[in-house]
Amino acid sequence: MTDGHEDEVGARRAIEAVFAEHRDMILAVLIRDLGDYDLAEDGLQDALTEALRSWPSRGVPPAPKAWVITTARHRAIDRLRRAAVGETKLRQLERTNVAHDEFESIVTDADIPDERLRLIFTGCHPAIARSDAVALTLRTAGGLSTREIASAFLVKETTMQARITRAKSKIATAKIPFRVPEHHELPERLARVLDVISLVYNQGYTPHDDHPLIDELRSRAIGLASVVAEQLPDEPEALGCHALLLFHEARQPGRVDQQGNLVPLEEQDRHLWQHSLAERARPLLDRALRHGRPGPFQLQAAISALHTTAPTAGDTDWTQIAILYRELLHVAPSPTTQIAHAIAIGMAVGPQAGLDALPDPDPPLDRFHRWHAARADLLRRLGDHDGAAEAFGTASRLASNPAEQRWLGDQADALRSRR
Amino acid sequence: MKYVLMVHLPDAVPVDGDPAAEMRAYASLKADLEARGVWMGGQALHDRSMTTQVRLADGDTLVVDGPLAETAEQIIGYYLLDCDDLDEAIGIAARIPAARHGTIEIRPVWDYESELDDVD
Lengths: 419, 120
Prior knowledge:
The complex is a heterodimer. Chain A is mainly α. Chain A has a domain at about 1-110. Helices cover about 70% and strands about 0% of the residues of chain A. The longest helix of chain A is centred in the N-terminal third of the chain and has 22 residues, at about 35-60. Chain A is elongated, with a radius of gyration of 25 Å. The N and C termini of chain A lie far apart (about 80 Å). By secondary structure, chain B is an alpha+beta fold. Helix content of chain B is about 30%, strand content about 35%. In chain B, strands 2-5-1-6 form a four-stranded antiparallel beta sheet, with helices on one face. A two-stranded antiparallel sheet of chain B has the order 3-4. The longest helix of chain B has 18 residues, at about 20-35. Chain B is flat, with a radius of gyration of 17 Å. The interface between A and B is medium-sized, with 14 and 14 residues.
């Protein structure tokens, strides 16, 4: 009696272990083999049902992951056989893949590589709209549910589901291949992948009130970046992206106080920072820089490293940071970088030099809260409190994030009360 | 997988290089596509001022002169290719000389014949 019960408990645990821990990887293998996201998910669901039925009575198979992949593949092929419209697809599968009897005999758990890289590149193909790519990549390679992704991006679940469906449909209809791009295509395609990953991280970086999922987004983004960096060790930008996210993450615990208010970098309690993450990031950045092919992610990681490793805010090497921002402006010009460059010059040289380095507020920059916030801070340091209060007020009105609005508004109020 | 590559070119294309060299580039691309077994067809089209529009209105054939929409660019030709996947089609599109000044629009062909086979 007890034996039977223990078998059942053991089987349940094994099922949970395989389906929870290895779901992404198994799904990736199936998607590659079957060339179809929905079919792969249906097959995996069938395999789960089958495992729940047979593992408790017959025991856990010796290679559980391989069993799941093989079973899911069989069930998917059964589904195609049942559906008349699946005939063409089935013929293609039979042509391009090993026959499944053969497949069953050769697969062992040890043979299964991490297929996530392939899924990431497919999901982030430039032929897929970026917001759709973010959704699909988080769903398939990041392992979040559609509901979770929708909630993290503050959109309705049906909206997020539509993005995922559109992406899958584009992959199937336009026949986007399930593979890592060839060498000559890699730089451009990798840039897209890293762009999507950093977009996911940034979505998790901006504080939202009552939003537990944003921590999850950042950790999934770091997970994706680490897959890419580990699988492509000769791509310095992949290493740079992984290092950048780790350096940022190291400083995460100091960014928001207990009331949910933003704490500016120079006032953060550096003891709260996760220095172990910075220690993991450092060798990644060093390895990247040794390739002698700098790029936007490596430069941003180097800047972040200087902030993260300064013992106090006063020790920050702003001159070096200003130089790195100038480099960054060369390789990836953007308004945000122009503003950051001006702030660094303001710190390295003086507030007037910083103001001179701020770009002109031509539209759409005149509506960008960070431009006004940077100007406000520089004016405050110059002693122009009225000008600074007004600029902080403008920045607060233009900011869309509640925590940022609050912080900027508080600065304006503090300056006005000094009068 | 079959794709149509539509070649769009802006009306105001800077004249650079040698037209004969450009023709040779198109010819050698075509020869390469044929050799690879990718080529299924393709043509260059006359200027859109040569366009004729036809519509049926209440059973009457309505014929109108001129292009469908006034845009700053037009389709100057098309390719019909049989590629392994979208990436192969993208690689070929990037080799079409007009891609330097214009845009190549890649559309997968709807393979309704094989879908009909499935229903049989």
